[in-house]
Design a protein that fits this description.
Mean pLDDT: 85
Radius of gyration: 18 Å
Number of domains: 1
Shape: globular
CATH architecture: 3-Layer(aba) Sandwich
Oligomer: single chain
Bound molecules: flavin mononucleotide
CATH class: Alpha Beta
Largest sheet: 6 strands, parallel
């Protein structure tokens, strides 16, 4: 029933009485609308705010990063963004208006290690690399840590925090697949930018949202971005 991969997960299928602490209850309709549990006893839970690091690399698919950032509310979560060395070049080629960040989102350069997450003492709750190039994938898999983006990913793995990688490449070489294997063994979540079509998306954004919806599920952010299989669209 409760599919969100979330640190404060409720027991699945448990018959135990769930006590919702007062701090987690909020009567405002906007907050309740975020929950797909509207109308259930879970609908009044306010999902705790998270520190999120969204890293963007020079793989094709800047639209995935943009759509993800559009869904993350800086008034609810602490949101940090970091671009790799080649991310801007691909963003310029793919996003007509460039990358748009909502007010309150904090951006960091990849060159300085003076970012909070470069130390295991201060990791974010979740780091997403979206889209993730094969270059960055390989460097993370082999622990290069030669810039702050790579170091943050390294910190996430060593601190056993949630690292979600959204690779975009085709076809794959054995090198890529071996790196995937290493990263899975190290605890990363690999969520390839493979859209689905059973909701019959009709725009580029709607296609991208089929991937972004799964990323949000794995971060643990409630959303109604795409209809779920066998559910009526809202
Ligand atoms: C327009 C464009 C699209 C690219 N698409 C991809 C891609 O889909 N996947 C990939 O692994 N690399 C892709 N690349 C190559 C990467 O940008 C390149 O390997 C770069 O070194 C990655 O660096 P980064 O990981 O630091 O961002 C693309 C490059 C350009 C210019």
């Amino acid at each position: 029933m409760f599919s969100g991969n979330f640190r404060h997960r409720m027991p699945t299928g448990s018959r135990r009485k769930v006590v919702i602490p007062p701090d987690f209850v909020d009567g405002t309709p906007e907050r309740n609308d975020r929950s797909s549990f509207a109308g259930t006893r879970f609908s009044r839970i306010v999902w705790p705010p998270m520190r999120l690091l969204i890293a963007i690399t020079g793989a094709s698919g800047s639209v995935y990063a943009q759509r993800l950032l559009d869904q993350l509310d800086p008034a609810t979560h602490e949101i940090h963004v970091m671009l790799s060395q080649y991310a801007s070049q691909v963003i310029d080629a793919e996003l007509e208006e460039g990358l748009k960040l909502r007010p309150g989102v904090m951006q960091h350069g990849f060159r300085s290690m003076n970012v909070p997450f470069a130390s295991g003492s201060n990791p974010p709750d979740v780091m997403v690399v979206i889209p993730c190039s094969m270059g960055t994938m390989g460097r993370i898999a082999h622990g290069l840590s030669s810039d702050s983006l790579l170091r943050c990913a390294d910190v996430m793995l060593k601190e056993r925090r949630k690292l979600i990688l959204v690779p975009r490449e085709t076809p794959l070489s054995l090198v890529h697949v071996k790196n995937f294997e290493l990263l899975l063994q190290a605890g990363a979540i690999l969520l390839p930018a493979n859209p689905h079509y059973y909701n019959r998306p009709t725009t580029v954004e709607a296609v991208a949202d089929t991937v972004v919806a799964r990323v949000l599920d794995h971060i643990g952010v409630r959303h109604t971005l795409t209809a779920r299989w066998q559910e009526e669209p809202e």
